[in-house]
Amino acid sequence: xxxxxxxxxxxxxxxxxxxxxxxxxxxxxxxxxxxxxxxxxxxxxxxxxxxxxxxxxxxxxxxxxxxxxxxxxxxxxxxxxxxxxxxxxxxxxxxxxxxxxxxxxxxxxxxxxxxxxxxxxxxxxxxxxxxxxxxxxxxxxxxxxxxxxxxxxxxxxxxxxxxxxxxxxxxxxxxxxxxxxxxxxxxxxxxxxxxxxxxx
Length: 200
Known about the structure:
200 residues; mainly alpha; Arc Repressor Mutant, subunit A; 2 domains; 10 helices; 80% helix; 0% strand
């Protein structure tokens, strides 16, 4: 008996499930990018075209949907925020490259992370993902500017890294864009100038 049809049916269901999950997560991220708060399951269903019943099969609760959104954002962030030849070249070049990477990340993932942060701060998995994201960003900062940081005392290094980290985390960029209403060019100027002052 040929089982190829059964295999095709299973593969088709798996592919459809993944398409629906992707559509739901896209709907969440689009909503957050528009500046709205985290959407309800009903709103995600309407926007994505995924039935509410199916949505609850994929995500048992709004919190699970939020955590999945954050996990996807974190995975994409690692790609978007990558810097070629980390820690190499003149300081000015490294500052400009670092700021460009952070602004790319802000444009692609800042709204999703901020919206998820507002709605999931009580969820342990969400806190873990956020802390991992922040730690990766801080580690990237230290690698990019290790030539300058290596000449500092432990106490000086702690202060410089803390200040530079605070300046360039996504929450800070979100504040500059939404509350200070700075343009991307203005944000670039602020970040570049701030890093120059800290690292020279």
